[in-house]
Amino acid sequence: MTRRNFIKYGSATAVSGVGLAAVVAGRPPNDPVRVRAQPPSDHAPAHDANTTVGEVNHAANGFDPTKLLYAWDYGKVSTLPTGQTLREYRLTAVDKDIEIAPGVKFPAWTYNGRIPGPTLRCTEGDRVRIHFANGGSHPHSIHFHGIHPAEMDGVDPIPVGQSFVYEFDAAPFGLHLYHCHVFPLKRHLHKGLYGGFVVDPKQGRSPARELFMLMNGFDTDFDSENDVYAVNTVGFHFMHHPVPIGLGELVRVYLVNMLEFDLINGFHLHANFFDVYRTGTRLQTNEYTDTIILGQAERAILEFRFNYPGRYMFHAHISEFAELGWVGFFEVRP
Ligand SMILES: [Cu+2]
Fold first, then answer.
1. Would you say residue 53 has pLDDT above 80?
2. 316-320 long-range Cβ contacts below 8 angstroms, 24+ apart
3. Which CATH superfamily hosts domain 60-200?
4. Ligand 1 centroid – CA 193 distance (Å)
5. Which end of the chain has fewer CB atoms within 10 angstroms, the N or the C?
6. Could you list which residues have their CB under 5 Å from ion ligand 1?
7. How far away, in angstroms, is 143 Cα from ligand 1 center?
8. What's the predicted TM-score (pTM) here?
């Protein structure tokens, strides 16, 4: 039974989230799908909608997808003798079970015990120094997107128990990312070793509600197809926890695609349009749309305002991804 057959089967039999959780957790490939009977629940809406019921244990996960929207890590800041700003970060690779949908645990490889890893943020021209320690069970590294010398490119595996210091001047400004670059790449990335890397322009950007959204997915039965899709790791999280935004407020989404196995991902906003700044490397926009497609590791900054209060969906316009978790709401409050 492939994921695509499962989706067809699931929609035909109105499988709700608990069914999804029961089916994807630990199911070996080619096993017949077993649909668990649904106990009566107070969370009635889940039985009319394709979503999960219950809540993942955010405390045990060590992060909450909502808090990750705002969790910028500016590092430990000091000034070099040259006057240049130095920002230091500590990243440790650790193996950890992460609950990616209620009742569905994934044996992840993480930076600092979370997926995505810390969202590193600095200003163009800052010196960044990343102290990396490999506390995992396999060789890992950190490969940064950006401009830097070859020896800082993170393609050499750091053995288990060893450490390495990556150091370079942050450039260019924009929305970047980092990830492990040890082979097999697909495996090391999909297991969770990635995070956002925001380099602000020296002149800054206009004030806005800034949200970090990293699109990812998880192959829970190891057949090289994703079974759960998400923004910030937990499927359907923003359906149950809409993102609050103010009426007329400028919203700036830092959108990163770290999805493995599927060649494209995307973002669609309901009842509105947004300006697109591809890779965030130019301050002028040349795209005004309501849907964008991003390939693996592509990213974009999106800006928009809502002028009517209410709840508005955002999701992958690839319907399959949306139905498996990549869907959420903005809640526009007057
Ligand atoms: Cu790795």
1. yes
2. 316/215, 316/229, 316/265, 316/266, 316/267, 316/268, 317/266, 317/267, 317/268, 317/291, 318/262, 318/264, 318/265, 318/266, 320/4, 320/7
3. Cupredoxins -  blue copper proteins (2.60.40.420)
4. 7
5. C
6. 140, 180, 182, 188
7. 10
8. 0.87
